[in-house]
Amino acid sequence: MRRSPGPSARLKLTLSYAGFLAVAGALLLAVVWVFLLRYVPDNSQGLLGISPNRYLLVRTFAPAAAVAMAFLLVFGLVGGWILAGRMLAPLARITDAARKAGTGSLSHRIRMKGRRDEFRELSDAFDSMLQQLESHVAEQQRFAANASHELRTPLAISRTLLDVAGKDPTRDRGELIARLQAVNTRAIDLTEALLLLSRGDRADFRPESVDLSLVAEEVAETLLPLAEQRGITLDVTGGTARTSGSAELLLRMVTNLVQNAVVHNLPAGGTVSVHTEASADTSVLRVENTGRPLPPDLVATLTEPFRRGTDRVRTDEHAGVGLGLAIVDSIVRAHDGTLDLAARPAGGLLVTVRLPGTP
Length: 359
Description:
This protein has helices at 9-35, 54-102, 118-167, 173-202, 212-229, 247-263, 296-299, 324-334; strands at residues 208-211, 233-238, 242-245, 271-279, 282-289, 338-343, 349-356. It is of the alpha+beta class. The chain is built from eight helices and seven strands; from the N terminus they run ααααβαββαββααββ. The protein is elongated and about 130 Å long. It starts with 8 loop residues before the first helix and ends with a strand. Helix 3 runs antiparallel to helix 4 (173-202) and helix 5 (212-229) runs parallel beside helix 6. The strands form two sheets. A five-stranded mixed β-sheet has the order 2-4-5-7-6, covered by helices on one side. Strands 1-3 form a two-stranded antiparallel sheet.
């Protein structure tokens, strides 16, 4: 946005300082005139014949007052210019940092020293903003790179299958179609997950009252065949836990949590526990499962997009695209909630979702 040039803030402050100083000097001279000189007799003998009269005092006082006013004006301009420069020096550093950020450089920080004042608070807030922007940009770059890689993989597999089929006309078409269908299904699932993740980040939904306990029961009923197939015991406990939000997104959140808990579990004899409760003005959903022990540094990264973890990658028909917990985290943030992941000492994961409660 282009603006017409105008006086700088330093010049404005300088003129303000000099103006205030000149006004203060003029007021002081007026006080001297009003409360002193006007009481001096204006006659040839002066006061009691020994003091100068008003005429002589004015002639003597006026030149000195003019010199003092000129000195105050010059002193106000010079001193105001220096003082304004020192006061605005931190603002110049913040402006330089903002210009660097405008060119795409987010790694620098102001780190202004000194005691806290308005400029230091602005500097700290700007540094915090730069840190968050740098983190978000790096996260988006990783996300774009991982998404490109994940989408390229099924396309490359499809091209390889088609090239092999073109070179070998005798190849079984049924097998080719089945493999192409599996690869295409995975690509569609990934695309839908990306769209759902984007929708959760935008939080564009009309809120409605949702009972997390009913959502948990619906999800458990849907995923019960998968749990029974894997020998996993699936339990839903707790009471009513109402919140306000998108029923579709909250259903997807609970589905992802329970499905992850079932899939990333013990080979047999594992358990998945889903519990809902309302505490004060908060609705709580807990999903706990058995499984292999997870290191804390791995748990802290599970909500990152495409982050599966070495011990959590699966190669069967239920292999995910690495967006399950990322979508959960996005949906929770869109509903002004919190998501906590904790590794169980005996193995497995405890996921706690806290959302604002409604009556």
